[in-house]
Write a structure and sequence with these properties.
The chain is an all-alpha fold. It has helices at about 1-25, 30-35, 40-60, 65-70, 70-100, 100-125, 130-150, 160-185, 190, 210-235, 235-240, 245-265, 270-280, 280-295, 300-315. The protein is built from 15 helices and no strands.
Length: about 350
């Protein structure tokens, strides 16, 4: 029993890291997918992706979503996560329009791990460790190199407004991740049911996964309401074009439903600050797909940036002496490592 429990504990960070990396990989298909629906405004992609995907996530989680909405301990975190998600969807695409794809993406995604560490420091009194700082700096540096290598222009619009929108996107994405993690911890069944050892049968009556998915479904379900309205108001012309719908459905089903479901699994095993650093794998996948599918040229500089991102992720994934990449998110008190 003791050995089995130890194996289960040691498997949690590894499983969480893998789940977040796969989620980031499917998120990385988003840019390539939009290539097959030319002429659709970026804000419509955001509204349709999170709006339709949010409705699907809420529908698939069913009763767990309703429990997350009605349980007092989790409800405030669900509301915070939903508000953060709506603001993120709008701010991110506003950043792309005003600051350009390269700079907007760099600032938004690159700032989210730093904001995540600050949010956990303020909200949970968790001090970030040297390993987390080093992994973040290396990965963000690599992501900046990759993004700049793929730059096709400086964009148009008010640059300062675009940079402000990008920083707001990074902050709200980090807040969304933190709120979801707190919402899962507020649901008793999400943290008190032991996780099964790989290769063994699931724990009897285990509801932790369903509770975690319910929090995600509730967050996306609430966020979907204003986003669907936004999609209808701003994207009426794009929504009536039949050839756009395969792309819309891909974005809703794969990056949103599958990606964020896996992200929820990861947040049950690693902290939000670790998860946001691992999600920097997204621009790596996006860059590779841009070369293989879209035909963009990455060059030596771009591939060097990919190497830096991978190095940062590998550093973060290495087990620490405390035995947890980011600590057990269910455990009280400061994380032992991150």
């Amino acid at each position: 029993m003791t050995d089995g429990a130890a194996v289960a504990r040691s498997s949690r960070p590894t499983g969480g890291v893998a789940a977040v990396l796969v989620a980031a990989a499917v998120w990385g298909t988003t840019g390539t997918a939009t290539h097959f629906a030319p002429g659709v405004p970026a804000v419509v992609f955001g509204a349709v992706t999170f709006g339709l995907g949010g409705l699907l996530l809420a529908a698939t989680t069913g009763r767990s979503t309703l429990r997350a909405l009605t349980r007092p301990g989790a409800r405030r975190w669900v509301v915070l996560g939903a508000v953060s998600l709506v603001v993120y969807a709008v701010a991110f695409y506003a950043a792309l329009a005003d600051a350009g794809v390269s700079l907007g993406t760099t600032v938004a995604i690159g700032s989210s791990p730093l904001f995540a560490g600050l949010v956990e420091w303020v909200g949970d009194a968790r001090r970030v460790t040297g390993k987390w700082v080093l992994a973040t700096l290396v990965s963000v540096a690599g992501m900046v190199v990759v993004t700049l290598a793929r730059s096709e222009g400086d964009g148009s619009g008010a640059l300062l407004l675009g940079l402000g929108s990008a920083l707001l996107a990074g902050l709200t994405y980090a807040t969304y991740s933190w709120a979801v993690a707190r919402g899962m911890r507020a649901a008793p069944s999400a943290v008190r049911v032991p996780l099964p050892v790989p290769g063994s049968a699931p724990a009897p009556g285990g509801r932790g996964g369903r509770s975690g998915q319910g929090v995600i479904g509730a967050v996306f379900g609430l966020a979907a309401v204003p986003l669907v309205v936004l999609a209808i108001v701003t994207g009426r012309d794009a929504l009536v074009v039949g050839s756009n719908w395969p792309v819309f459905l891909w974005l809703a089903l794969v990056p949103t439903v599958l990606g964020h479901s896996l992200y929820a699994v990861g947040l049950r095993r690693v902290s939000a600050s670790v998860a946001t650093v691992l999600s920097l794998f997204e621009p790596v996948v996006a860059a590779v797909l841009a070369v293989l599918v879209v035909g963009e040229r990455l060059g030596v500089v771009g591939w060097s940036g990919i190497g830096l991102v991978v190095a940062g992720l590998a550093l973060l994934a290495l087990p620490s002496r405390a035995g947890a990449a980011g600590g057990d998110p269910a455990a009280p008190g400061p994380a032992t490592s991150r």
